[in-house]
């Protein structure tokens, strides 16, 4: 039997624990005199929802190295077709999640939908690999890109020291954690600003590209579908790269309980965001090919920088800054959304209770945010992060595919379920097939990495029975489990308080709780 969340009152740390509705119960079912309920407030408006989706989808890839698609298609024309098709299919997945998010009004995204449809074991396995490896590694990777490109203008003539990159990356990660711990409103406002910066950066590339087209610079589009022929495995791999570039459309569903009027806001935010991103991605690639040939693009390590150096002159120095801001926006949006996944999993009794606690003044799931800090730091200063992500990339699409397949299951199992937003059945069917196809492709094209990832994922099964099902644990085991669960949260909290203390000193005014 799955452990039930324990009702608790205010702890010494100033937190309350949430119930399954995202609210915080009090003893006896009544609120203490003069004390209002502490909840994750509905502060995600339409504009903030759009900024979360766009801000997490658009990272460094479109600016730095969009050559994975071109390399595996063999032609300019086919690469543009793949970018368009991937955008449409990602929209199908996002629309499926819009139906799930408006029907199951709980935060948590994939985890919540898998829990609702397939039960606690698959849901626990999903959150297990997300907490221990996928999210810390993914955050560390995008943070390293932030650290590298924020320093690039200061190291034009020489190589950037790796230690400097990791130190500035550590600062960036800490700032993101502090920001998400302190205020939902400020985190959302900064995300809107960073999304504006990303769209500005894309326009800086698209507008000169359109001007090049008007001038007749179309030589790289002649015989667009001819060139080095792609082999049988090439197109599926190009498709995989394209779908990965659009990943992030699901993050708004991680914060459903904080969305204002979710029945209208979620579908509208998803449609607007995916339209903007798809059009932006395709036009950005078109702009690249007005100035850079396919061969030059494949040789470039930073396509946007190469493009801007040819057309923008000295202004090209601003491109690394925009890339760094883009990475920071992805970091911020990812931490904001995924912390709610851990919060919900804890509320369901599948993660330590401390992660379901909300700060009584800041109204943020602070423990669920800062637990990522030490785990991300460990990833940052250890091993090959890219290998870890490659090992577990199939797990993301497997669980997303399962969640969308769950929508089809719910249509037949619970036909009377309230569905304010409903998509045609072929949309989730096609998208779930696409996800399972990519999983099968990874098994065929890279069985070693996928096999290791599969083994890592399966460790969640014994962990589930050990930590969740097994009730008669010895006292020493329970104490050890509690200690191991509390150490990361307390360590991260100490680090966060230290950063807040220095911020208070620098500002010289204000109060840091």
UniProtKB/TrEMBL annotation:
Pfam families: AA_permease_2. It is a multi-pass membrane protein. The keyword Glycoprotein does not apply. It catalyses: L-cystine(out) + L-glutamate(in) = L-cystine(in) + L-glutamate(out); an L-alpha-amino acid(in) + L-kynurenine(out) = an L-alpha-amino acid(out) + L-kynurenine(in); N-acetyl-L-cysteine(out) + L-glutamate(in) = N-acetyl-L-cysteine(in) + L-glutamate(out). One of its GO terms (cellular component) is astrocyte projection. InterPro entries: AA/rel_permease1, AminoAcid_Transporter, L_AA_transporter. One of its GO terms (molecular function) is L-kynurenine transmembrane transporter activity. It is found in: Cell projection, Microvillus membrane. The chain crosses the membrane at residues 45-64, 76-98, 133-151, 163-184, 190-211, 232-254, 266-290, 321-343, 364-382, 394-412, 424-444, 450-470. The keyword Transport applies. GO terms for biological process: adult behavior; cellular response to oxidative stress; dipeptide import across plasma membrane; glutathione metabolic process; glutathione transmembrane transport; intracellular glutamate homeostasis; L-cystine transport; L-glutamate import across plasma membrane. Keywords: Amino-acid transport, Cell membrane, Cell projection, Disulfide bond, Membrane, Phosphoprotein, Transmembrane, Transmembrane helix, Transport. NCBIfam families: 2A0308. Disulfide-linked heterodimer with the amino acid transport protein SLC3A2/4F2hc; this interaction mediates cell membrane localization. Belongs to the amino acid-polyamine-organocation (APC) superfamily. L-type amino acid transporter (LAT) (TC 2.A.3.8) family. This is Cystine/glutamate transporter. It comes from Canis lupus dingo.
